Q: What sequence folds into this?
């Protein structure tokens, strides 16, 4: 940029902006990885279940505390969790539910926070 005549102040502001964006992206992808790992573990822990609908999913829950938490969560989040347990990627879940991929991540993060105490 210096060879193009850009002043040092502008170069420094761009560097600071780029660094902030980089850190923001890194935090986002770290959370994405944590959420994915957690839900994959849940999916692997119950491979024999053939749950196809949200109602079947809720009916299959034996832990009363877990059921109480999930019954209060909106249906779209439960559908996303069910699809994740069935092995779908976040991108596939977003396409099926008609929401953005980032929205799926946020919903899964919020659900994971609620489930930490169970």
A:
């Amino acid at each position: 940029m210096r060879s193009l005549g850009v002043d040092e102040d502008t170069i420094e502001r761009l560097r600071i902006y780029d660094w902030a964006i980089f850190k923001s992206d890194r935090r986002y992808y770290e959370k994405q990885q944590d959420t994915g790992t957690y839900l994959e573990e849940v999916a692997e822990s119950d491979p024999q279940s053939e749950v196809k609908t949200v109602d079947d999913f809720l009916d299959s829950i034996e832990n009363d505390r877990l059921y109480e938490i999930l019954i209060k969560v909106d249906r779209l989040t439960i559908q996303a969790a069910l699809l994740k347990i069935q092995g779908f990627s976040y991108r596939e879940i977003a396409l099926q539910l008609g929401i953005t991929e980032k929205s799926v991540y946020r919903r899964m993060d919020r659900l994971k926070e609620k489930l930490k105490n169970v």
Summary: The helical segments are 8-45, 54-59, 64-72, 75-85, 90-97, 101-115.
